[in-house]
Design brief:
The complex is a heterodimer of chains A (78) and B (164).
Chain A (H helix, E strand, L loop, with lengths): L4 H9 L1 E2 L5 H15 L15 H18 L9
Chain B lengths: L10 H16 L6 H19 L5 H18 L1 H13 L8 E2 L3 H11 L3 H11 L5 H8 L3 H19 L3
Helix pairs in contact in B: 1-2, 2-3, 3-7, 5-8, 6-8, 7-8
Classes of the chains: A mainly alpha (78), B mainly alpha (164).
Chain lengths: 78, 164
């Protein structure tokens, strides 16, 4: 037991004064107000519904279409 | 103090347990109980927005402290007026503790006269049951510094109050 244990136990006998009953209601109202506010100013972009695999297939298809529709390379005449 | 919050409805019960200690902690920066309750209200709403759990008590106490200190800095003139009013009214502000007899009142006054850095450690340790590690986190100091401030405070209180 240390030297200050007597003063420590005297301090523990003091009870903090109770808070006023309306404090919990005030906090509740503040939390409710908070939850009714608009949440964000930035709208989320619509996410693609394609899976990664489908997305890769789609990209390759587009590239191969571009290649087939491109004019044949010109061969320089010597 | 073991506090477990399982859902959003339990905050009221947990807050009711913590509130008297929190308000006592907040009264280090303001004289009136109403102002201290305002600080606790703001702190709790800000805290709950981020946490949804009272398990992280250090964040709650750090938020109360931060709001209290902001108020003090922002409104130093008001604080001085309040301090003057307290002196004029011969310390007849609302008591910080309930059921105070003569010796308990002397002890409470002695706690009030402690340097702030010691008083806040005592308030967190005795009436809020925070560990020295938690107190260190709230104040941004080491666990050992928190413990030594506490020891200095108790020694000082003992010297001032108890018969030699």
């Amino acid at each position: 037991m240390n030297d200050s244990s007597d003063i420590e136990s005297e301090l523990k006998k003091l009870r903090p004064a109770p808070v006023r009953a309306n404090l919990v209601t005030r906090i509740e109202n503040a939390l409710l107000e908070e939850s009714s506010l608009p949440t964000a100013a930035v709208l989320a972009q619509k996410r693609s519904t394609l899976s990664n695999r489908q997305r890769i297939t789609q990209i390759w298809r587009q590239r191969s279409l571009r290649l087939t529709s491109a004019p044949p390379p010109s061969i320089p005449v010597a | 103090m073991e506090i477990v919050v399982s859902n959003n409805e339990d905050w009221k019960e947990c807050f009711s347990q913590l509130a008297p200690g929190l308000v006592l902690f907040a009264r280090q920066w303001v004289q009136s109980r109403a102002d201290a309750e305002d600080i606790v209200q703001d702190a709790f709403v800000r805290f709950w927005r981020r946490q949804h759990s009272i398990q992280n008590r250090t964040l709650l106490f750090a938020t109360v402290r931060s709001i209290g200190l902001d108020l003090l800095r922002r409104d130093a003139r008001r604080a001085r007026r309040e301090a003057a009013a307290v002196l004029e009214s011969d310390q007849t502000t609302e008591p910080h503790f309930s059921n105070e007899d003569e010796s308990q009142r002397a002890l409470a006054d002695a706690v009030d006269r402690l340097p702030r850095e010691q008083r806040e450690v005592v308030v967190m340790k005795i009436w809020n049951e925070l560990t020295f590690q938690e107190i260190g986190t709230v104040l941004g100091i080491s666990q050992n510094t928190a413990a030594s401030r506490y020891r200095y405070a108790l020694t000082s209180l003992k010297k001032n109050l108890l018969p030699q």
